[in-house]
Design goal:
mainly alpha
Length: 98
């Protein structure tokens, strides 16, 4: 959400997670590859695990540091989207940015 990212993080998002460069840094929904309407906690957990697996499977030594940063962001996104209060606050902030 509006944070600047370095080239290594951009590579993690685009090469490993297959996100579009124009969506970087991604919001929680794009990061987990879930729709904003997804409310099922299990589906959000599965999506987060899939993204984590992509990171672990394909990361190269030069991207390990950036991958760790993105991993933490995936975990935060999962936690936020699974908590109704945190999610409502996050969604409000997202609409406020537009």
């Amino acid at each position: 959400m509006g944070d600047a990212i370095d080239t290594a993080e951009l590579a993690v998002y685009t090469r490993l997670l297959k996100l579009s460069p124009d969506k970087c840094p991604p919001n929680h929904y794009d990061l987990l590859n879930v729709s904003p309407g997804e409310k099922d906690a299990k589906a959000i957990e599965v999506a987060a695990r899939q993204q984590i697996e992509r990171l672990r499977k394909d990361v190269s030594p030069d991207l390990i540091r950036a991958a760790r940063i993105v991993l933490k962001r995936i975990q935060r996104a999962q936690t936020c989207l699974q908590d109704p209060r945190a999610r409502a606050s996050y969604d409000f902030a997202l609409t406020d940015e537009k």
